[in-house]
Write a structure and sequence with these properties.
The chain folds into 2 domains: 144 residues, Rossmann fold; 106 residues, Rossmann fold, CATH 3.40.50.1860. Helices cover 45% and strands 17% of the residues. It is built from 11 helices and 10 strands. The strands form 2 sheets. Strands 4-3-1-2-9-10 form a 6-stranded parallel β-sheet, with helices on both faces. Strands 6-5-7-8 form a 4-stranded parallel β-sheet, with helices on both faces. The chain starts with 5 loop residues before the first strand and ends with a strand.
Length: 263
């Protein structure tokens, strides 16, 4: 069980940003990753649909013998993590949430921006985060339709992605935000472009490293940390494996086998 793999899932390739943080912190762990690219983006889907996809992923990782399950997707966490923890009470399950708490601590002028999907921003979970951690700061939210699809296509630098991003950043900059939360696991792949557009004065905050630390804590509590060596990461996609193979070197600079996920 200790050497069993960890299952990580996202609506698409965005969760590879979280997978990278897990690999960096826990290099001895073997990793499985499912990209539900056939149904991306989740941000516009119903909570019922997303909960069903979460159940499918959980069952798959159980069949693969995974010792832990990471929902590397803010929208999937919002919709499905409570049900999963109820259905699998003895399984370490780690979800995502926008980094409201660290952003509230980091802001210098008290104005925090959030880039996220519509589904995340509309959720009760996000509202609760604001109530809990953002009472002393002003939070400006910005849904970002279309951004996930461009990142899924491997577009991280083009004039099209820059123009779309500028339209989403302008309201945050106009409001005076000095700290911006990247509230979707796809968005950290845009950090180099964001740095070009924003300069160094605005802090960019995401939660990938915090998720890796939480996973490490849960595994350590259960004495499930692997001694290694890790096996090569394995990947599945519910869309074209060929597309995943082509985009993987751009977003995951290590080797990995890509298979079709037919569920």
């Amino acid at each position: 069980m200790v050497e069993a793999p960890i299952g990580v899932f996202d609506s698409g390739v965005g969760g590879l940003s979280v997978l990278e943080e897990i690999h960096r912190l826990l290099p001895n762990e073997s990793l499985l990753y499912v990209a539900d690219c056939g149904h991306v983006p989740y941000g516009e889907k119903s909570p019922e649909f997303i909960r069903e996809r979460c159940r499918v992923m959980a069952q798959f990782f159980q069949q693969q013998g995974a010792k832990a399950f990471v929902l590397a997707c803010n929208t999937a966490t919002v919709a499905g993590v409570a049900d999963l923890r109820r259905d699998y009470p003895d399984w370490p399950i780690v979800g995502m949430e926008p980094a409201v708490k660290p952003a509230a601590a980091a802001t210098r002028n008290g104005v925090v921006g959030v880039l996220a999907t519509t589904g995340t921003l509309k959720s009760a979970k996000f509202a609760a985060l604001l109530d809990r951690f953002a009472t002393d700061v002003q939070v400006v939210t910005q849904p970002c339709p279309g951004l996930v699809e461009l990142i899924e296509a491997g577009d991280l630098h083009s004039p099209a992605v820059r123009q779309l991003l500028q339209g989403y950043l302008d309201p945050l900059l106009a409001a005076g935000c000095d700290t911006i939360i990247l509230g979707c696991t796809h968005y950290p792949f845009l950090k180099p472009l964001l740095r070009q557009m924003l300069g160094d004065d605005i802090s960019l905050i995401d939660t990938g490293a915090a998720v890796a630390r939480q996973l490490q804590r849960l595994l350590a509590e259960r004495q499930l940390l692997a001694a290694g060596p890790a096996r090569p990461a394995q990947f599945w996609t519910s869309a074209s494996p060929e597309h995943m193979r082509n985009i993987l070197p751009l977003l995951w600079n290590k080797s990995g086998i890509v298979r079709s996920f037919g569920l």
